[in-house]
Design brief:
mainly alpha, 2 domains, 3 helices
Length: 100
């Protein structure tokens, strides 16, 4: 009679496995081949990974695009501010001339 799979394979949370601060789906240095297999079986399938990568790529693309637009808007606002400061200087000069 063969032992059940649970009896043959130690659970991932055995004291010999250092998982401090990590979930059980991380492959760590020193893991046995069986621990790597057990961990790998818990990881998402390729389809899910591809979908996640695609979603992250789209999100990053949107962030980069938004960042570019924000930088353009910032440059425009800085230009507007520079013009406003020039106008303020002109108005202050006119006020000083009128006060004399």
């Amino acid at each position: 009679m063969t032992a059940s799979r649970l009896e043959m394979d130690p659970p991932l949370s055995t004291p010999t496995r250092q998982t401090s601060g990590r979930g059980n789906n991380h492959i760590l240095a020193g893991d046995t081949t069986q621990e790597v297999r057990n961990t790998s079986s818990k990881l998402p399938s390729d389809g899910i990974l591809e979908q996640s990568v695609s979603q992250m790529t789209t999100m990053l693309s949107n962030i980069v695009e938004h960042h570019g637009r924000a930088n353009q808007r910032l440059a425009s606002l800085e230009e507007d501010l520079a013009h406003a400061k020039l106008e303020e200087e002109k108005l202050n000069a006119m006020i000083q001339a009128l006060e004399k």
